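INFO batch 0412 | record 1 of 1 | parsing
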Amino acid sequence: MVDAARPTLERRKTDRRRRARGTRADESWFGAFSADPDSLTAGDGPRDDVGRHAEADDALEARLLSPSALSGGASDVSAFHRIYRAFLSARAALGVALVATLAAAGLFGARPSLAVASIGVSYAALAIGLWLWPGSSVADEHAESPRLGRVTWLACIGVDIFCFGALHLLTPSSALNFAALLVLPVLMAGVLTRRVQALATAAGVALLLLGNAWFAVLAGGEAATLMTQAGLAGSGLFVITVLAGELASRLAREELTARDSMELARQQVQLNRLVIEEMQDGVLVVDRSGRVRAANPAARRLLVRRGLGRPAQFQLRGVPAWEQLVKTVERGFHEAIWPEAGRDVVLQFEQGTTRTLRVRIRFTRGADEPSAEELCVLLLEDVRSMQARMRQEKLAAMGRVSAGIAHEIRNPLAAIAQANGLLAEDAATPSQQQLTRMVADNVKRLTRIVDDVMEVAPGTVIDAGVIDATAEVGAICSDWARAAGLELGDSSQFKVELPEEPLGVTFDVEHLRRVMINLLDNARRHATGTPGSVRVRLIALDEATAQLSISSNGPTIPDDVERYLFEPFFSTRSRGTGLGLYICRQLCEQYGASIDYRLRPVTEANRNDFVVSMRRSTGVNAEAGLQFPR
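INFO prediction complete | emitting C-alpha cells
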C-alpha cells in the first residue's frame, strides 16, 4: 500500500514545487492553501463515530476520520484564521501595553499630550474590541486564496499604521520610540495580505518614516543622521515583509504536505478497516495486559456461544470461557514465536458447549522498533468451518467424477433391470423368485443413488421461485404425519410451530419437501417417542432470513460423527446410502440457503437441531395457507 502510494506522493510534491515557482504576483503568501483537486478530496468518506474509544491508540484514527479531516477546504480557512487570531491577540496585548506605558510615563513626570493619550486609549479600545469580536468578513470571498478583506484590512493594518504613525509624528523628540510599533502592521501585512499589498504597506510605512525625518530636518535636525536612520528602518521593514511572507509560504506548504499525508493515512485506515471487517477469519489485537484493542465482527462471533460479542475494547481476563485463550496469549508473549500453522484452543462455554479455534499469532513490534508498544494479533478460525471448507473442496472434485460415473451406470443398470424382469416371468421355484426379487431391490437402490447423484451434479440449472413457506411447511408436515401414522394433538410426539402470516422464501416446493422429509425421518428414527420429541419450527429470523428448525430429543451426535454429517456416502446405518444430508445441503445451496447442525443447551429437551436458513422474498399470496394444527 505504501509502495503504491509513493509515486502519487512524489507527483504531488512536484506539482506543489511548480505552483510555488509559478505563483502569480497578486497571490497572498497563503496561496499554497488554495484547494488543489489533485491533493484534496472534499468529503469523500464515511464519518465514523470514534468517540467510543478513549484509549491513546484510538486517537490517531479519531483524528483521521474526524469531520475536519474529511472536508477538503475547511482547513484552509482555519489555518488562516489561526494566524489572524494570533495577530488580533498581539494587537490587544500591545494596546494594553501602550496605555500602561503612557500611564507610567505620566507618573514619572513625562506626561504625554492629550492627543497622544487619546490616540493610545482609542487604539487599545479598538484592538480589544476587534479581538473580542473579530467580525464576519475576515477573508475575501472573491479571492482565489485566503486573505484579508478590505474592511478587515482597514480595521487592523490601516488602524495600526494610522495610530502608530500619528504617535510617531506627534512625538518627534520624545523619549518613547513609537516607530518600533510600525513593525506590527508590516509583519501582519506580510503574512495575511497579497504580496503587492504587503510590499505597498512596507513602502507606505517607509515613506512615513522618511517624511517624519524630513520634517525633523526642517526643524533643525541633522539631515544625514535622520535620513540614514529612516532609510535603514524602511529597508528593515521591507526585509521583514519578505521574510514574513516566505515563512508564511513555507508554513502553508508544510501544512499542505501534512494534510496530503493525513489524506493517505485516512484512506489507509478506511481500507484496513474495510478489509478486516469483511474478513471471514477473526482478528483480535491484544496487549500484554490481556486487553483487546480491536476485534472484527468475525472474532466477536467466535468468542461467544451465540450472537455477536461485545465491541472492543474489553478485557480477556476474568471470563471463564476464555481462560485457554488468555493462556495462549501469555504463552505467545513469553515465547515471542508461534507456529506458522497455529495451535488449537478450546473455548469452554456454559451449558457444556465448546468451540475449537485454530489460533495463529503475529506480533506488531519488530527487532528494529524497540520503543514501539508490543501487541499480538490473533487470527482465529473455527476448526469446524476450516474442516468443512477443506471437505467442500474435495467434494466438489469428487462430485464431478461421481456425476460422470453415475451417467455411465444408467444404461447397464437399465439392461440389468430389463433382463431381471424377463427372468422373473420364467421363475417357477421359490428360490428363483427370491433371487429375482433381490436383484430388483438392489437395482432400485442403485437407481435411487444414481438419481440422487445426478440431481446434485454441478451445472444443474435451477429455476428458483418464491413460495409461501408457512403454507408449504404445514402441508409437508401434514403429509408426513399421515404417512408415518402419527396422531396430532397435545400428546403427540410431533409438534409444529408456524407463523400466523405467510412467509415468502426463495425455494422449490419439491426440493423443500425432499429436505424436510429427510430431516423428519432422521429425527423420528432417533427420537424417544415422548410428546414433543420431534419439533418443527418456522420463524422470520430477520428481514432477509427465514429459519426452519427440525429438532429431536434423541441421543446427541458424537463429535467424530458430527464432522462427517454432510459428507457423501457416510452413514451410521448398514443399509444407508449416506447421501441424504449431503443432498439436503446441495439442494439448499442451490437456492442460496444453508443447512447446519447445532447442539442446543442441556436445559432444552430437544438438543439435536438441524437448522435451514432460507432467503426471504416478497410476492406470496396472502390468502395462501394450508393450516396445520399447532
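INFO post-check: Residues 223-278 form the longest helix (56 residues).
INFO record closed
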